[in-house]
Amino acid sequence: MFFSKKCLQVSLVLLAALFFLAVAFACSSHEAESSSHVVEETEAFSSSPASPTKAMADLSSSALSGIEAPVASLLEKLKPAQLEVYVAVPSTAYSAKGSREALQEFPAGTTLSVAEDEDEVFWFEASLEDGRTGFLYGETLFPIQEDGTPSAQSLTAQRISSRMSALYEKLPQGKYWNHMGEESDGEDPFSVTDIPCEHSIYGEVYCNFYDGKTLEYFPEYGTLSQCMGFASFLSDQLFGEDSGLSLFYDIDRLQIGDHIRLYEYEHSMIVVKKDENSITVAEVNENYEDCLISWNRVIFFDELEGLSWDSTYATRYPMYRNESGGFSFWEDSSSGFEVEYNDFPEEDFSENYDDFGDWEDWEDGEG
Ligand SMILES: [Zn+2]
After folding, report:
1. Which CATH number covers residue 110?
2. Ligand 1 centroid – CA 268 distance (Å)
3. pLDDT tops 70 at residue 361
4. How far, in Å, is the centroid of ligand 1 from the Cα of 206?
C-alpha cells in the first residue's frame, strides 16, 4: 500500500515536470490556469514550517539534474507536507511501518521533519542521514507548536484524541447503539436511536452488529454485537481496521483506545482517558439490557485490579512504554497470550475466584 503510494508520488512528480515543460513551450501565458489544481494543493503544503528533506533534495538535484529553475521549484512544492517534531524519548527509524529493522537512532532532544500523513496514527516517515526513508513511532514524537515549544501530547495521542472526539460526536452519550424503529439489518455501525433495545423482550433483534479485527482474536464469539461489537467498532475506527492487535494482561500497559474484555462478566469497554488513579471508558449496554451509549464511566485502578482475573486487554498499539521510559514492541500477537499469562501469580489468581463468588451473589441480586 505504502510502496504503491510512493511510486504514485514519484510518477506524479515526473509527470508534473514533463507537463510543466510542455505547457511552458506551447503556451507560456496559460500555465497557471492549466496546472491550477496542482498549485492550489501545493500552496497549502508550502505554508508548513518544514525544512527541505534530504530525499527530496537528492531527487531534484541528481535524478533530474540540469532541470530549469521553475521546475525545480515546482518539485519542491510537490513534496508531501511536513511536520516539525520534537523527539521526546530516544526514537528508532525502522525500514517500514511496523518493521523491526532499525535504520537510524534519533536521540531524545532532537527535532526533525516527518511526513504529515493525516491518515496515519502510528508510523511517521522521515528522511534519514544516508538518504533512505525511515518510519518513527508517533508516541516518541511531539509536534512543535507555533511558539516553538513541543506540544504536550505525542503525535499519536493527538491523532487518536481527534478521532475519539469525532466518534463521540457520531455516537453520542445517552443514545442507544441500535436500529430500533429503523429500516435496517443492523449492519450500519453508525446507527443510533433514542429507543432502548430491551434485550429481555427482543433479544438482539434491534442491536447493531460489527465484527471487525477484534473478532479474529475472539473467534469463539462468532459475531459481535452489543458491548463487544461497539468496542470492536471503536477500536477499528480509532486505529484502522488493518492495524494489528495484541492481547495482554498487565494493567500498567493499558493505553487510550485499548479494549478491556471481561469474560465472566461478559462485558467490553474502551479506554478513553487515563490518569494516575483511574481510567474512563466508553461502552454500551452496561446493564446488559439496552445498548445505551456511555462515554463517562470512571474506573479506579484498584477496581480494575479486582477485575484482573477476568480481564483480557486488547491493544492496537504496536508498542508499549517499557520500564526505562522508552518503547518496546509487543510480543508476537499469537504468542503474547502465553507469555503474559504465565507471568500471572498463581496464588492471586485462586484468591480472586472468591471475588467471582461475590459477583455471582451480586448478579443474583440484580436479576
Ligand atoms: Zn442491544
Report:
1. 2.30.30.40
2. 13
3. no
4. 6
